[in-house]
Fold this protein.
Amino acid sequence: MADWQDELAGWLGPFVERFGHKARRRMCPLYVAGLIGPGDRKSIGPMAEQVAPGDYDRLHHFVSDGVWDEGPLEFELAIQADKLVGGGDAFLVIDDTALPKKGTHSVGVGPQYASALGKTANCQTLVSLTLARGEVPVMVGLRLFLPETWTGDKARLERAGVPAKYRSSRAKPEIALAELDRLIAAGVRFGTVLADAGYGVGAEFRQALSARGLAWAVGIPRHQKVYPRDVELVFPIAGRGRPRKRHVPNVLSTSAEDMLTQAKWRMLAWRKGTKGPLKARFAAVRVRVADGPPQRIGDKGMQHMPGEEVWLVGERRASGERKYYLANLPADADLKTLAATIKARWVCEQAHQQLKEELGLDHFEGRSWRGLHRHALMAMIAYAFLQSRRLKAAGRKKESGG
């Protein structure tokens, strides 16, 4: 690793060129080097001591107060990530990650559910997008989610410097779709979008992915309603009064859990772990999702009509835990392909952990929207550089037959 700083300077060339100001051209490499370099704390003070003694004020100004647009650097990150891992066999993983935080003043902070902690905690939540191929993830998007305690407090938004276009209340799936469109516009290539049940539970989110012509596989709750694949729409027979004018399904919808009770389950391994192959039992059936327009059906009240035909996949883990998924992969996809696609989402958790533990994603001590997002952007750029070194080293090893 002795030569990593020289290599970093060259790799950052396309990013630095997007800065017009000489001081920013100098500070950007220093900030990224500070994130990568030694030290347990990656806040501005400790980093300045390591990479820019005497330049604390300039480094702080660069990330927190400098007048520059992050958009060109985000675009360059998308280009470089696509070069590293983009392609038809790549996945784009949508998730979110929590940054534990004390106090009430840091932008977006508040009591929120943190999946990494498994509980509600005082934290900031970032919607994340990770481009991955094989077992190599590259983070390409981190955007802060603002709880209602923030979006409903104009003075608080003003103090944190939240841009006007981000002040309205936006759900995490809405933020994710906006980031997805940004990456598509930048030319990022991927084959399938993956997301957990926090996103997959929303019919609007799934339908938005399909409307964009994207393949997807998402988690869902066990009570998600589905219809059999061969459901038919028929005119109900009116016992009295006027003839019915709207079609209704010839069978009622049922939960994902119940739909799979009679399915054939198979033990499958999807990748090798540190303690051997990772295995679970899987089953899959073709269904129609009950996410069409709502309509009253007899004495059953309002029911959602059959929507898109997709795969319903179940997973039974050795721990006894059960998980459910929907995927719009082709009807001829086999069970092993479905399982491998669903389980590919784990790489984003690896990326979250490495960004925090190795690059200090959660070490930023400022309170502003601009500062937090710039720090996150620098961390993503640093992570992409480290992945480029990893891929280069793997290529050399392969060429030497090692």
About this structure: The CA atoms of residues 18 and 71 lie 10 Å apart.
